[in-house]
Amino acid sequence: MSPALIAVLPFIGALLPGLLIRSGRDIAAISSATATFVALLGLCLHIPAIMAGEVVTARFDWLPSLGLNANFRIDGLGLLFGILILGIGLLIIAYARYYLSREDPAGVFYTYLMLFQGAMLGIVLSDNILLLLIFWELTSLSSFLLIGYWKHLPEGRQGARMALTVTGMGGLAMIAGMLILGNIAGSFDITDILASREAIQTSPYYLPALLLILLGAFTKSAQFPFHFWLPHAMAAPTPVSAYLHSATMVKAGLFLMARLWPVLSGTPEWFYIVATTGLITMVLAAWIAIFRDDLKSLLAFSTVSHLGLITMLLGFGTEAAAVAAMFHIVNHATFKAALFMTAGIIDHEAGTRSIARLGGLRRLMPVTFVIGTVAALSMAGIPPLNGFLSKEAMLEQATHAVWQGNPWLVAAMATLGALFSVCYSLRFVWQVFFGPERNDYPHKPHDPGFGLWSAPALLAVLVVLIGLFPGSMADWLVEASASAVTGSAQHPHLALWHGLNLPLALSAVALAGGVGLLALNRPLLAARAAIAWPDAKAIFDAITRAATCAAGFFTDRLTNGSMSRALAAFALTVVLCGLWAFSTGGYQGATRPMLPVQPVPLVGWAALMVATCCMVAFHRRRILALVLVGIIGLMVSVSFIYLSAPDLALTQISVEVVTVVLLLLALNFLPKFTVIESRDRKRGVDAFIATLTGLGFGALAYAIMRSDFAFSPISEYMLANSYKLGGGDNVVNVILVDFRGYDTFGEITVLGIAALTIFALTETLLAGASGRRLRNWVHGSRRAGDRHPLMLVVVTRLILPVSLVVGLYIFLRGHNMPGGGFVAGLVVSVALVSQYMASGFAWAQERQKINYHALIGAGVIAAGLTGIGAWFAGLPFLSSTYGYVKLPGLEEFELASAMGFDLGVFLCVMGAVMLALNSLSRIARQAGETVNLDPMDIDPSREARR
Amino acid sequence: MELLLSSAIGMLTAAGVYLILRRRSFAVVLGMTMLSYAINLFLFSTGRLVVNAPPILRDGATAYTDPLPQALVLTAIVISFGMTAVVVMMALGAFLEGGDDRVDMPRADRLPADSLSGNRMSGDGDA
Questions:
Q1: How far is B3 from chain A (nearest CA, A)?
Q2: CA distance A732 to chain B (A)
Q3: Could you report the per-residue pLDDT of B23-69, keeping only the tens digit for each?
Q4: How far apart are CA B127 and CA B123, in angstroms?
Q5: Whether the complex's predicted ipTM surpasses the cut of 0.85
Q6: Which of B13, B52, B73 sits opposite A693 (nearest CB)?
Q7: Which of A337, A580, A746, A907 could form a disulfide with A246 if both were Cys (CB 3.0 to 4.6 A apart)?
Q8: Which of A821, A806, A808 is nearest to A898 (CA)?
Q9: Where are the domains positioned within chain A?
Q10: Domain extent listing, chain B
């Protein structure tokens, strides 16, 4: 099975429970499990090839220009993690089926879980670091959803937020680090990066890249000082905790360190940063775990501690240590998942996870007792369980590590960590299962059904089997993954018994010390409680609160609710940025000659300037201002004509008409005059800012127009190929419907959305308080006596067919002459709007039943279908073709597929314009606009008929 | 000619900026319309000014003006209509709902200066 398909399967699995959301827990679990199982099967089919040392790949170019390729690979490391993710995923799915109660929305849960599984699988199967980053962020997001699954619990929400903040922040740092890494290596493909160790380690950017990537890995894997989010994430349902914190999410950081181990490790920086962080985390978290009362919290800190252990092993940078790290990843996943599930069972059946309220469960829950004890003893590193083997290997490696010339420091600290680990593991067993039975459990504890304990039992069996027969159970997987990590063939030869050696002695010390510490548990607890330890959550909250306050402080200073103030700041910033850019940009001076000034443009210019000045002076008289807008728009259109842009002139002038109509309609319900509110001083300041902006923008335009093109414009290609490729003479139209068709497709979609927004706003207004206000509307201004004048009605009726023909003509000729869908849509809209104006909205509406929503939709669909049509010819989306058609009775004419696209533009523009105006008219109707039954108020023919 | 066009752009910009700094929604809408003109003309002018050479292929024509800025401006004109329409609708809605057409938040609703340093948490407040 292709690695890409394996990576996609969980996402398909995520769809099913969402679609079958009403069908209950069984269906959701079965559909998720099926997808997971198929993916696992596909992965396992590759085992023989991978054991033979091959790397299975699947490559798809996604955005090759950015170096982003959807490349997937399965090597030993990916295989190990893939088996963990899917295998434990399968067990979690089964476990969660029985863990979730009937009230929990199971479809939602399984969708989140499968999303998360897909994201994790994507990380470990990616062969491109940009792709890996995408999946990495996806794990942060989906784990946020999972941790906060019980939305009603405040701890759940806070824990989810904290996890997202910490891992998301690390993810951002990692993006930067990965980009640096990819830049040094010259490729974002992991295969290429792994091959450029020399270049990376000698680069001056090695350290920044390393630090940034490690920041991402350490936050994800909860390494000190970012360890605090993990225990708070325990507010999640237990299946989530078991999945995220044994096999997947927190191991992503480890995976990344292992993945990049060949190129990043082996330097002193790597050793001191990674090994030291791992060591500190291991000891510190194990120490804290001894004192936790909540079972899941204890397990969470022990997870942090074991992650530190693996990080330390990776940090040593030796091949043997990498082998030990891989082995411990397998072992930790098995016993920790079993332990989390055990904690979940205890919580489920006894009603509490608090150690202080438990004890004596040995006889009440014998099955759980056996499973939990086996797993916990493995965590403690007691032979012959699998935790013992990898702990021995770890201690062995620790004795070889030299820290700042000190040969025993690491070994001593590692032993201390192991000692604490023995203590909390035994405490878990001792204080939960042993001791006297109590009579105050929240529920009467008993073993759960087979469904709930089967998954942890299977893991416990694995714990024992790997411990007893490591050579046959785990050798192959560790060999494959360690070979992939180190880049050279490894033969681990895992065995239970290595003879009497130093690590065994250290193990014995740890075991004895741990038991001793457990005996001192109660006085220690009391002593620890007496000291005020810094609470990581309080610190985190204080930091986030400070950051929020600082952001709020600046935001409130910048924008205090006054829009003019914010806009003034914006305008000034733009001017200053422009000035700065201009002064540092190396302007060459004017190189193009000026065009001579003809008298006619001079007149137009003068009209424009005067109208603009009047506009500012008289903007308070709003209707007058609208007239001036019309003049200005007209002058702008004229200048387009003069400056060789007939298409723009046509569009501008038709848009002008609908804009003015729209504003007039709106003005019907707005005050007709603006009162003077601002003090002279504010107006002076505003005028100053406005002048400054105007001068800057004008000067910039002048500078651009007077200088030559810095690069030869791409338009030459369009001019040369407009006819050849697009089949049209009007290059602007060919650009719109062909060369840049994608842009236009986006534009008409946006226009459609804008119109629908207007419609929705109108609906909301009419339904709410405004609707009531409108029903009682009293029109302030005097109404015209003859509101539907004879002349207007007759003229608009006469020009309607003419306008429609003109619109059609403009549309048809658009490909070769000025015109096209945009202009045609506007012209037809204007023709229709004039009917509305002449005889009133309701009258006109009764006589034409066009659904404008459908028009917009049809437009977008027509444009989209034309684009898709190109696929059938094997061409990319929106490639156009053209040919010549001869119909009887007509001359031969050209037919371009772009015309279908232009038709979409036409429909969408027309629908959007009409829907916007229509919405405003509906407001007028609500305000008691009378509905006229006749087309005009005074109709001589009607008088005559009487 | 360049001088005429750039002074017109400057003038339209100045008028537009002055109007969007006003306190009533209608003036702001007018200002945005002015700014749209200015920006469309500016975008258009980046293709440099050419007279009598529309980008429509003809036999015997030797020079054409740059069609690309024209295509960009054409869609910009239509989109600016859409934007104006939405803004007008919002202004109208605000006027009908709120009873006046001021664009600024009423002073009473603004944050008093002394509460800025207090604890204002985002999120659902249980953090």
A1: 7
A2: 5
A3: 888 999 999 999 999 999 999 999 888 888 888 888 877 788 889 99
A4: 8
A5: yes
A6: B13
A7: A337
A8: A821
A9: 265-519, 522-558, 728-778+785-946
A10: 2-49+65-105
